[in-house]
Amino acid sequence: MFSDMLGAMRAALLLLSLALGVWPLHAVPAVSNSVPNKAEQRAAQSMLRSMKLRDRIAQLVVGVVYGDAPNRTSKEYEKYRHWVRDLRIGGLIVNNRVQYGLVRYAEPHAMALFLNQMQKQSKTPLIVGGDFERGASMRVSGTTKFPHSMAYAAARDVEASRREGLMTAREARALGVHWIFAPVADVNNNPDNPVINIRSFGENPQDVAAHVSAFIEGAHSDPANRVLVSAKHFPGHGDTAIDSHMDLARLDANKERIEVVELAPFRAAIASGVDSIMTAHMTVPAFEPDHVPATVSRRVLTGLLREELGFAGLVVTDAMDMLGLAKQFSAGEAAVRSIEAGADVLLMPPDPEGAIQAVLAAVERGRISRKRIDQSAQRVLEAKVRVGLARKKLVDLDAVSDVLDSEEESEHAQSIADRAVTLLQNTGNAVPLAAPDEACVIASTGLRLSSFGQRMIEEFRRRAPRARLMYVDNALPGAALEAMLGDASRCSAVVFATFTTGTALNGELTSFVQRLTEGGAPLIFASFGNPYLLKDFPKAAAQVATFSPTIPAEIAVVKALFAEIAITGRLPVSIPGLAKYGDGIQVARRGGN
Q: Which among 200, 371, 384, 394 would be 20 to 30 A from 471, CA to CA?
């Protein structure tokens, strides 16, 4: 019956693509059935029968850890041991630790060691997740540095997304991670979106669907490294102007528009066998008239996702400590409402023990049925069996380095970054640089982004040692910025690079850059993060977007400025008042293509 349903969805998706005329027939993803087989069901049922009600509820909770290996006598380690050994939570998610404004990435061997320690403490194997949207490098050092999703769309390479899915799965499993909270299925069609932008494959729903399907199929293609993948953020976070980490976002489109745009990538993900779908902490009035987040809406999670779209896999909440949800309800009430709505997994509740207790109390009062708990617990256990945790839950610490950051995959990631470089506007052929040794290069960074720009400066210095190269703190006042640069007219060109993914430059940077556009030297404005920032500087001689503030992108821009690579990227989004979808000036490399 479910295979028939998937076939019907595939047919509907094909009709939609043909009607819109933008998704060729060969790009329709093949149907892949991720429904558990009978052996997985039996194994999960056997585990479920041995669990008390509280333990079944605990299987629905995934707590956050930071990928390092705390001292086993520390309070931090004892907290995690309590979650795993005493509460018997279902899993863990590895996140970045932020200290003193700096983002710390997990060291892979310490992370694998710690996860092994936790698995040894757990009676039922833990499912371990990670937001590996650009591969494991989003959370873990020493792994392949894949660009952001939008770079893949700018490079127009769906097969590369398939390869990224495969390699992300292999690196994840080597580290002890089984659940990848990717790909991002949001269609970013709102230039003011402060949280999705380059995490999305773009604004074209069919392009996004094609890349989403390819990533899923790639991640599932190696049986020896089977992972769970999760399309997010349902029912589509791309057309919002509020960061749901900070407040409750809102999707103000009608049902017809949502069906054609926002839901297209999720339908494709389901047809491609996605294991799980992550909810969004945002209101969707077209489907939920009450002013509540989709995460706690039965109309959205059960009515739309389960019943209309026919999704039978795991439904996982977005992080429950995000203010888009936490401002609306107490932590316990949010947990109960999410389960009532149809969620199977509570991700990162602020207090895992409190979440378990709140759901248990709701069952005891009759608000939630035991059958409802068993349905979700069964799905979680089936997923654990599917990724082989019933057979093996520890990773080989000696083999971790053999998989991570291979030279071949690093070259692949670099090739995507190279092909993603997109040039908009090139007055006077400012790009490539005519006299790089006389150029002035400014990398705009801040405390949290202090490592950004370093590789770009190093690469530029190696090629043009006499160029003026400088970092500017994006919190500096305008006068200090002017003093650092000095007389810009003495520069053959000024290259200004920003790495922000926000919707505007910080502080006085905007007025500083505006003045540069009016100076004697041509300004090349390079946005490594949010491409929509280009619209703020229409007088720049040249505008460059990379869609990814990563090391491969920094290298790629320098190569493009020196004409070592052809510039071939095309916009995967439209930029109001500046450029339309698909725009991009093509420039041959020195010596021809």
A: 200
How does the average pLDDT of the chain come out, rounded? 92
In whole angstroms, give the CA distance from residue 201 to residue 188. 8
pLDDT grade, residue 451 (50/70/90)?
confident
How far is 557 from 563, CA to CA, in rounded Å?
10
For residue 233 the two structure tokens come to 């953020």
Give yes or no: residues 216 and 315 share one domain: yes
User: How far is it, in rounded angstroms, from Cα 577 to Cα 573?
Assistant: 13
Residue 184 contacts residue 230 (beta carbons within 8 Å): no
Domain with 460 in it = 421-561
The alpha carbon of 486 is separated from its chain's Cα centroid by a whole number of angstroms, namely 39
| The one catalytic residue among 82, 109, 222, 245 | 245
Token output for 425: 């506007």
Predicted confidence (pLDDT) per residue in 206-256, tens digit: 999 999 999 999 999 999 999 999 999 999 999 999 999 999 999 999 999
- The pLDDT tens digits of the residues spanning 129-143 come to 999 999 999 999 999
Which neighbouring-strand residues pair with 347? 62
Q: pLDDT category, 3, cuts 50, 70, 90?
A: very low
Locus of tokens 């930029």: 575
User: Is 245 in the active site?
Assistant: yes
Residue 566, domain member (yes or no): no
Residue 2 burial (C-beta neighbours within 10 Å; 0-12, 13-18, 19+): exposed
Calpha distance 561→544 (Å, rounded): 10
Q: What are phi and psi of 83, to 5 degrees?
A: -55, -45
Q: Are residues 374 and 434 in the same domain?
A: no
Residue 383 and residue 437 in one domain? no
Partners of 438 in the beta sheet? none
User: Is there a single domain that holds both residue 157 and residue 283?
Assistant: yes
Residue 573 lies in a domain: no
Same domain, 333 and 436: no
The string of pLDDT tens digits covering residues 473-510 is: 878 888 888 888 888 889 999 999 999 999 999 878 99
Residue 374 has pLDDT above 90, yes or no: yes
55, 157, 186, 318: the catalytic one is: 318
Q: Does a structural domain hold residue 461?
A: yes
DSSP classification of residue 435: -
Verify that 352 and 459 share a domain, yes or no.
no
Among the three residues 391, 407, 438, which one is the final residue of a domain in this structure? 391
* Residues 196 and 99 placed together within one structural domain of the fold: yes
Residues 175 and 239 in one domain: yes
Taking the C-alpha atoms of residue 511 and residue 458, their distance in angstroms, rounded to an integer, is 27
Domains identified in the chain, total number? 2
Residue 439, domain CATH: 3.40.50.1700
pLDDT tens digits, one per residue of 349-364: 999 999 999 999 999 9
Query: Tell me, what CATH number does 211's domain have?
Result: 3.20.20.300
pLDDT at residue 312 greater than cutoff 50: yes
- Compute φ and ψ for 345, nearest 5 degrees: -130, 130
Give yes or no: 220 in active site: no
Kindly report, residue by residue over 252-299, the tens digit of the pLDDT.
999 999 999 999 999 999 999 999 999 999 999 999 999 999 999 999
In a domain, 270, yes or no: yes
Q: Which two tokens stand for residue 274?
A: 């996605």
